[in-house]
């Protein structure tokens, strides 16, 4: 029996890592909620089991969580499990890493600053820095967030944190494999709760994919269908640039056109050709070995996006754009000059401007900076600067 300590028990983790781990058998998952007790409070009433409502395949009960620790209630318990878990994994979303636009740990970030002391730790990076400094035996730290080279980025964030905090980690016993995760998992709606009867139900699509760098410090579950490989980068690029890049274009373009759901945006006569173009351009940046898969992958993505029953909201995808766009849009744009990706960026800028003009704060860790940039006489370079792309302003302006 092995144990995974997992940070971030949102819907995605419950539809992906936990489903795979339940299927593997022989392992349990201790969840960590960094902020609120809501998920623990909901799950504890039902013995930590919940329904996964898989589109077209019915409902399956996932019974793999053995406990959920809530950080503000008991930090010591989290530090304790960091010493013994076989794998420490995370789905804390892009902003949970507290990185700057260049992908380095933002040491000026208030939460990171406050975590350096080791008192009242509140971030994943703070827990890993202080916790792993005490760790005696090998452990795998597995990022399952949507970010290019997620393992390497996490390792360097923990390294920078440890340096700044004066902590000494034994890097020889730690491994941070990169991974590519994929399963479209919308937020739970009342309709889903009503159909399944489980207030903690999670809706997801039938498709799922997981490619992990084969670099574990110790044991791992026998996850069914997982592809272990020496080099995840091509798969990460494929997924982030094609799927997530297309998602972001549909989100900002669709909201600008008054739409609500992904399936509506992908059927839109203006957006559909753009998204097809974006995927082709993104596909052209992939390594030669993947080129022949690009058309079929793009077609399969369109098909997944067309699924009306998932009811995947565009505003869910539009969240945290400042954290997502640097690796969803910029590599394709820089490598190919893609006009479709430029349109995607124009949609993001239009979204920032219109939300600010209407007095609404964006759902984004840089919401204040975005509002300030949007109010400038020349907002385009100011907004692009926030995602490390000020130099692209002339190309974005001309149309
Ligand atoms: C989406 C992703 O919310 C978003 O930004 O693009 O959550 C997407 O649904 C997943 O990465 C699919 O695996």
Shape: globular
Q: What compounds are bound to the protein?
A: D-mannonic acid
Indicate the CATH topology of the largest domain. Answer: Rossmann fold
- The CATH superfamily name of the largest domain is NAD(P)-binding Rossmann-like Domain
Instruction: Quickly count the domains.
Output: 2
Would you tell me the overall average pLDDT?
97
Residue share in β-strands = 5-15%
The CATH architecture designation of the largest domain is 3-Layer(aba) Sandwich
**Helicity, as a percent range:** 40-55%
Main sheet properties: 6 strands, parallel
Query: CATH first level of the largest domain: which class?
Result: Alpha Beta
Number of helices: 19
Radius of gyration: 21 Å
Give a short summary of the structure.
The protein is α/β, with parallel strands linked by helices and 399 residues long.
Present the secondary structure layout:
Elements: E1 2-7, H1 11-15, H2 17-24, E2 27-33, H3 38-44, E3 50-54, E4 58-62, E5 65-70, H4 75-84, E6 87-90, H5 110-115, H6 124-132, E7 139-143, H7 150-165, E8 174-175, E9 179-182, H8 190-196, E10 202-204, E11 209-213, E12 227-229, H9 233-256, H10 262-267, H11 271-284, H12 294-305, H13 314-318, H14 321-328, H15 330-336, H16 339-357, H17 367-374, H18 379-386, H19 393-397
Parallel strand pairs: 1-2, 1-6, 2-5, 3-10, 6-7, 7-8, 11-12
Antiparallel strand pairs: 3-4, 9-11
This protein binds D-mannonic acid.
